[in-house]
Specification:
Blueprint: H1 2-35, H2 46-49, H3 52-58, H4 78-92, H5 97-107
Helix pairs in contact: 3-4, 4-5
The protein binds zinc ion.
């Protein structure tokens, strides 16, 4: 009898605990939803400024600065940035990937084969 009573109260505690957790989660979710309306401006990042197509093409080229071993998509030097900017301009002009690759090869060279 005593054991049964204690088990019942334990279940009651668990039930209340679950309800409290549920309420906290709900309130946290509501709070998050109400605060997420404040949008923070994205970090100025050279790599996110260009399109995925540009990164795709840039990855096929070694950086032509001559001092780094990174590819043109990953290198942070001004030559790589110029290469990416050049590719990005071609992409926005609606040129095909093959045309852009050809232009980059003739202007910057250093394709990765
Ligand atoms: Zn470089």
């Amino acid at each position: 009898m005593k054991r049964k009573t204690s088990r019942f109260s334990l279940e009651g505690v668990i039930l209340v605990g679950l309800l409290a957790t549920f309420l906290v989660v709900m309130m946290a979710g509501w709070f998050q939803a109400s605060t997420s309306r404040i949008t923070t401006p994205p970090e100025p990042d050279e790599l996110t400024a260009v399109s995925p197509i540009t990164m795709d093409i840039a990855q096929q080229f070694d950086c032509s600065c001559g001092t780094c071993s990174d590819n043109a998509a990953e290198c942070q030097c001004s030559t790589a940035k110029a290469t990416r900017n050049f590719i990005e301009k071609q992409v926005r002009q609606g040129k095909s990937e093959q045309e852009i690759i050809h232009d980059v090869q003739s202007l910057f060279g250093y394709d990765r084969g």
